[in-house]
Amino acid sequence: MNKSLIALAVALALSGCATKEFVNEQVSGVNKRMDGQNAELSGKLDKQSQEFSSRYSSLDGRLNNQQAALDGTSKTAKEALDRALAAGKLAEGKFMYETTLSSQIAFPFEGNELTEDAKKALDEFAGKIKSDNRNVYIEIQGHTDNSGPEYTNLKIGEQRAEIVRRYLAMKHGFALHRMNAMSYGESAPVADNKTRKGRIENRRVTLVVLQ
Question: Does the global pTM surpass 0.85?
Answer without folding.
Answer: no
